[in-house]
Design a protein that fits this description.
alpha/beta; globular; Tripartite tricarboxylate transporter substrate binding protein; about 325 residues
C-alpha cells in the first residue's frame, strides 16, 4: 500500500535494541546526576591501622558534611595492595565503590603481579604524601643510620627489613636504598605497614622502611627509633632525624594516597566526588586528624593528581627495571 512502510523482523529488533540502549543511557545519566542516593563504600587495599587506612577513615568521617550519603571503609588486603586495587578497578563504575589509591598503582603492574594499569583509574583527589624512613627497635644495636648501613655491608642478606608487601612502595624504598648504598637486605613482606611495625616491636625483624607517621606513636612511647628519612628535607615532626641525602645517599622515595574510581565512571559522578573531596580536605577536623597522626596533607585535585600518577608511573618503571624487579 502507498504511504506505508513495513519493517522486517530484523529492523524491528534493531529499533528495539536502540530504544532500550537509549533508555538505559538516559537512566544512567539521570542516576549520575542524582548521585549519591545510597551509601558509598571506600575500599582500602591495606590493613587497618596503617597510614593508608588512617587517611581513609579521616576522609570518610570528614566527607559526611559534603555528601548526602554515608561512607563506609572496607579493608581488602593482599598482594602488596594488588587485591584491593584490582577490586576498585573492576568495580561497577557508578561511584558507589570508590577506592583509596596508593602509589602502588604505578608500581605493581610493572612487576607482572597486577592486571590493572595506571590508566584503569580516574583520579579524584590526592590527600596525603609521606617519605620512607628507616626505623629500628629502641633496644637495637643500631644507634645511627651509619651503624645500620655498616652492619648491612658486613652481613650481606642478614639484616631483615620489613615492608608493606612485595612490590609495594616501602619494599621499593628499601630496594632503592640497597642499590644506592651497596648493601644486601633480607626483605620481609607483610600485608601493610602496621603488621610490619608489629613484627619490629616483637624483634622478629631488624628494621622497617615505612613512613614516619606509621611509627610515630611507638617512637613517642620510646619503643622505636627512626634513623633516617628518604626525603628531600627533614620531617617537621622529627627535625632531629637526618635525611639519607645528608648521609651521602642521593635518594628520596615517597608514597601518596588519594581517592580514585574506575575509569568509566560518569563525569557527573567524578565531578561530585572532586567537589566533595576539595571541601573535605578543607575541613578543620580532617586537618586536625592528620596532624595528630603526623600525616602530611598534600591535596591535589583530579587533573593534577593524574599528572602525578603518570609521572610516577614512568619513574618507577625505569627504577624497577634498573633494580631487576620489572617483568
Amino acid at each position: 500500500m502507498k504511504g506505508y512502510r513495513f519493517l522486517t523482523g530484523t529492523a524491528v529488533l534493531a529499533a528495539g535494541v536502540l530504544a532500550a540502549s537509549l533508555t538505559a543511557t538516559l537512566a544512567a545519566g539521570a542516576q549520575a546526576a542524582d548521585y549519591p542516593t545510597k551509601p558509598i563504600e571506600l575500599t582500602v587495599p591495606y590493613a587497618a591501622g596503617g597510614g593508608t587506612d588512617l587517611v581513609a577513615r579521616a576522609y570518610a568521617d570528614a566527607a559526611k558534611k559534603h555528601l548526602p550519603q554515608s561512607m563506609g571503609v572496607v579493608n581488602k588486603t593482599g598482594g602488596a595492595g594488588a587485591v584491593g586495587l584490582t577490586e576498585i578497578m573492576a568495580a561497577r563504575a557508578d561511584g558507589y565503590k570508590i577506592g583509596m589509591g596508593t602509589v602502588e598503582i604505578t608500581m605493581l603492574p610493572h612487576m607482572g603481579i597486577a592486571r590493572f594499569s595506571v590508566d584503569d583509574f580516574s583520579p579524584i583527589a590526592r590527600l596525603n604524601a609521606e617519605p620512607s624512613a628507616i626505623t629500628v627497635n629502641a633496644d637495637s644495636p643500631f644507634k645511627t643510620f651509619e651503624d645500620f648501613i655498616a652492619n648491612a655491608k658486613a652481613n650481606p642478606g642478614k639484616v631483615r627489613i620489613g615492608n608493606s608487601g612485595t612490590g609495594a612502595i616501602w619494599h621499593l624504598a628499601a630496594a632503592a636504598l640497597q642499590d644506592k648504598s651497596g648493601v644486601t637486605f633480607n626483605h620481609i613482606p607483610y600485608d601493610g605497614a602496621n603488621p610490619a611495625v608489629t613484627a619490629l616491636l616483637g624483634n622478629h625483624i631488624e628494621a622497617v622502611s615505612v613512613s614516619p607517621a606509621e611509627v610515630v606513636n611507638h617512637v613517642a612511647a620510646g619503643k622505636l627509633r627512626i634513623l633516617a628519612v628518604m626525603a628531600d628535607e627533614r620531617s617537621p615532626a622529627f627535625p632531629e632525624v637526618p635525611t639519607v641525602k645528608e648521609k651521602g645517599i642521593d635518594l628520596s622515595v615517597y608514597t601518596w594516597r588519594g581517592i580514585v574510581v574506575p575509569k568509566k565512571t560518569p563525569q557527573a559522578v567524578v565531578e561530585t566526588l572532586r567537589k566533595a573531596s576539595k571541601a573535605t580536605v578543607e575541613e578543620a577536623s580532617f586537618k586536625e586528624t592528620l596532624g595528630k597522626m603526623n600525616l602530611t596533607l598534600a591535596y591535589a585535585d583530579g587533573p593534577e593528581f593524574g599528572q602525578v600518577m603518570q609521572k610516577d608511573n614512568a619513574f618507577f618503571k625505569d627504577l624497577m627495571t634498573k633494580l631487576g624487579m620489572a617483568k
